[in-house]
Fold these 2 entries.
Entry 1:
Amino acid sequence: MRAHAICFTLGRFIQAATLNTVIALGLAVFGDKEFSTNLVYSQCIGLSIWGLLDGGHRLLMPDRAAQKHRLIWIVPLGATLGYVFGTLVANTLLNTHNSFTFWASEPRQALGFLVLSLVAGGGSTYYYMSREQLAMAREDRAHADAQTEAAQRHAAESQLKLLQTQLEPHMLFNTLANLRVLIGLDPTRAQDMLDHLVAYLRATLDASRTTRHSLQAEFDRLHDYLELMAVRMGPRLRYTLDLPPELAAQPVPPLLLQALVENSIQHGLEPQVEGGAITISACQADGLLTLEVADTGVGSQIDLNQPALRQGSFGLAQVRERLRTSYGDQGTINFIAGYAGGTRASITFPSEI
Amino acid sequence: MNHTRPPTALIAEDEPLLAAALQAELAKLWPELRILACVGDGDSAVAQSLARKPDVLFFDIRMPGQSGIDAAAALADAWETQGADAAPFPALVFVTAYDQYAINAFEAQAIDYLLKPVQPDRLKKTVSKLQLALIQRAQAATSLIAPAWSGDTQLDATLAQLRHLLGAVSGPPSDASRANPVVPLQVIQASVGATIHMVPVEEVLCFEAADKYLRVLTAEREYLIRTPLKELQAQLDAQVFWQIHRGTVVRAQAIASVSRDEAGKTTLQLRGLKEKFGVSRLYSHLFKAM
């Protein structure tokens, strides 16, 4: 670390010396003194100013960002002192006349040099400070970027997993197999089924892009899904969608109920030879919206209220996660096993209108 | 074997449209084939197959009641291979929407499989394969003069493949999939009335499924717990406890003898228990004289 700091200091020293040389060159071209004299004065004054400012920053501004205002007096003071000290050193080195008499003979030129010192000191301080700030900002951004990237990756992964559960291959290929049969048997029904499939797929793919849709839209998508399942399961699936018209416009996270309905079918009705019924309903009380999925299936042998689920866990974990991100502690999910032999799941969260 | 009898088949598929479509496709590609029955669940599939003894079975894998694979295993177990009613084990075709079991990865293709939606060209291949198998079977039956059905090759090959599908090869050290549970269970907690009994797993001789309960048998007494066998088995050391039947897992070291009766049924006696336990065909390969 020390070697690192020395390296940086040396770098700034060389840059300061280069600037001094450029100034000396400029003075030689536009002034009346020769280059060597200009160079000695320029280096002596410039390096003195550099030393004072560089040390001054270090000693008087341990916290750069918060103590930036101190530059207002550090820079003029450092530059002036540096100018005086550098001039004295140069006088001694060149063994010339006391150049402070210069102030009497050529006040304008002398003032010009002082102003030049101030400008060079201020300019280079400004340059270094902004570079430092830039580096710090870059570091902050890199850190923030890494965090955002991790969050995005996490979101993308869970999005992918959600898609995989929703576009579950059994569901998709069985549906397509039924569609293939219907095309030959009953083209009108096949078209109907295809329309439901298209709406279902579109909703599934769009769900990640919107945070809310209306409860009506939610029920419409469930209707699409249940229609697809009804073609497949025939009389083994009966369903009721009960949405009170006054709740139709309530905003809800898209496809929140989908996983519950899939669970009811997959773990409740499908294993049961005689099939069963699903009822999906919504009600509102005391500013809370309750959505309920009840089935008459086999019922679960495990307690679904336990967060650590063994089977079919991803869909439910996803529902919990989405409830938490959308409503915090105010969103709850509750399972009642053994309701009419099956399972009743209810989700409650604050209604937004 | 009489050559005039037309080949017969049974379809087990819970989705009515798909069952009807498969039947229609088969009628086109294999007009002689008689479909004896179309059933919609695994239990009926087993019952109907046993009753009507078809030559070919088309089993959907995901079915209510019992999965197609479980149904095939139950059928293989209950199939009569000896006596007057003995018939060769049917050729098995699984029909599935998604090949999660990677059925086609098996070398021994005792079981064919079809992916849904069923493509006519693919079904044609299956039909030719089945026709060939039935011809070979008929030839074998006529060329060998009255063979005692000492070994039904179709049944043996089917069993071997089903064992893989079920991941049922427990016991032998070669199988690593289930051999090392993360943390083997130490104690079984069984409630008797208001008391919870702590039963060390070392004392357990046998777990047997009975209705909604699981019987836990030790040399001294019997306990009932509610944990399903499958779930419990995952927490047992497969080297120590061997599965011998769909609903039975026994301590290998406690097995005293395994015997086979005239009907081909295998039973097993445990040291310290009077009760005898049936060994299903799926697991009887575990017991061979050294």
Entry 2:
Amino acid sequence: MSYHPTELDLELLRAGEASAAIAQHVAGCAECQGQLARIGQCATALAAPIAAIEVPAGREQAILSLAQQRAAVVAAQIERRRRPRWLRPLYIAAPLAAAASIMVFVTTVRSPQLSQPAASAPAAAAADLNSDGKIDIVDALLLARDLKRQSAQQPQWDLNGDGRVDQADIDRIAQAAVSLSRRQP
Amino acid sequence: MTGSPAHSFDERALVALANQGDAAAFEEIYRRHRDWVVGLAWRFVGNRDDALDVLQETFVDLFDRFPGFVLTSSLRGYLYPVVKHRCISLLRKRRRVVPIDAARGSEAREPAWQPDPPGEFAKIIEVLPAEQREVVRLRFALDLKLDEIAQALAVPLGTVKSRLHNALKALLKTT
């Protein structure tokens, strides 16, 4: 670098977010080192720590209970969305015995994979990122980390077929992983 | 909880799990951000009981966003404005005095911030425009990245950079 970095560049350097070129310049420039030190003093002064606030046990338990209740509501909503539209009247119109037995027959003999569109055979292989023979939350984690690092993406990770590898594909793996774990005894 | 695998998960993976109704993911999200949220609330409201109320309301608000919550930058970028607005509402409800912005002669849009930085920095920070002051606090006091600040304030990243740059120029000029 033939010019001094800006104050913003120096702040990014302080936080470990600057480029190697900026770091190299500052390492050899006394003026910039002085500016960097003053930014550090400011950061230290403003980051004055506050005493840890302990959350009382009763309050903590109340919040955690709310979390569990909400999780159950979300899980129920997801489960309802997975049901085919034509299956929903079953739960309301029980006296329809003939039609009901046909539906029950169909739903009990069909392959489990068919009820999970995210886990068709080719998609299942692609979703098993660590090739351990199962789709679990570790696969979701691996794809999430890959997206964060923006490393080269494999086309087969486009699990929903929208032409992109993104959060929606992570959601698809998580959906498959959670539904599979619920089915296990 | 530390025995649960959720505690080692990337934030995106946690949100994905929570969107599927995974109870451990909800709990992990709470535990990761509890201290940060209650500490931020305390900075705004200045007392423990109110900070705890804001903590609970904030997480109720967050939990209600699932399923369908979309993580854009980070959870802290989402949580900051939620905490701030709840603190402002609480202070108004309790009819606390909101410090007047003397430089502008109008009611400040931000509540007081605690604790005040020591000595010379307190004076320097106070004369900054409100937008720059908030960016400086988010950056140094709350240790947010620039994209998280942009999400927290709902402004473009370039605006955050501009405000922080100008604030730093003012700070360095006077130190």
